[in-house]
Amino acid sequence: MMRPTDADEAEIEASKAPLLEHLIELRKRIIYSLLALLGGFIICFAFADPIYNFLTAPLAHALAGQPGRHLIYTQVYEKFFTNAKVGLFAGLCLAFPVIAAQIWMFVAPGLYKHERRAFLPFLLASPALFITGAAFVYYVMLPYALKFFLGFETKGSKDALPIEMMAKVSDYFDFVTTLIFAFGLTFQLPVALALLGRVGIVSSDLLRSSRRYAIVGITVLAAIFTPPDIFSMLSLLVPLIFLYEVSIWLVKGIEKKRDKERAEADAEVDVRADE
């Protein structure tokens, strides 16, 4: 880790506050975050039906040309609570920039200036990677997964009843959002490994030498989080392996930058010692 400068130490000393002030500040940030979430929930709950229709578009496309196909709900309150979950899910996405900003404003005063410069790119990259993972689910993996599951329907015969998929509105929403969260979180791999590399817990050499074990772990992860068809599994496996390789290069770049900063700091100390 790069050693702090005198200016960094002075900045941290100036930002120190009693525990009560930290608790008051934490309460303020939590209140702002909850207000943002509440506002996002109210807005998205008002538009719950269009949002849900957007989420069901891949299923509607898979069932195109089959009149009479529809979603159902079997409890009187099920559609209402599904709309509430839609509002909460979409409201959280809408309020995330505000929540992330509140977290940053609470944590940043306790960091050195060079630490704030180092961690800010990761804070910005995290939602971008989550959105990438969610978009990958919606536009690439989900259509093939639905096609796979619909393949288990049977037309029936004289001696057997037909088997037709009639999904519940709540079950479909849970299925889609689980996949979105699973892909969004696993796409955070470069951010997690780069942060670990930044603090010196892992190195590019360690990641490179552990590649085969990482691929086994990623394969297990893909098998757990995806539907049981080969395309869905590969749709998560291949991007994660690619992101792992990207992480190695990111950590390598961080190490080079850290070595350069350390050499400059040591040179500055030597100059001061000569004076």
From TrEMBL:
Name the UniProt key words of this record, in alphabetical order.
Cell membrane, Membrane, Protein transport, Translocation, Transmembrane, Transmembrane helix, Transport
Which Pfam families does this UniProt record tie to the protein? TatC
Protein name, per record: Sec-independent protein translocase protein TatC
Where does this chain mainly localize?
A: membrane
Q: Which family does it belong to?
A: Belongs to the TatC family.
Its biological function?
Answer: Part of the twin-arginine translocation (Tat) system that transports large folded proteins containing a characteristic twin-arginine motif in their signal peptide across membranes. Together with TatB, TatC is part of a receptor directly interacting with Tat signal peptides.
The membrane-topology field of this record reads: Multi-pass membrane protein
Annotated compartments: Cell membrane; Membrane
* Subunit note: The Tat system comprises two distinct complexes: a TatABC complex, containing multiple copies of TatA, TatB and TatC subunits, and a separate TatA complex, containing only TatA subunits. Substrates initially bind to the TatABC complex, which probably triggers association of the separate TatA complex to form the active translocon.
Residue ranges spanning the membrane: these are 30-48, 86-107, 119-141, 175-197, 209-225, 231-251
Q: Which domain of life is it from?
A: Bacteria
Organism equals: Rhizomicrobium electricum
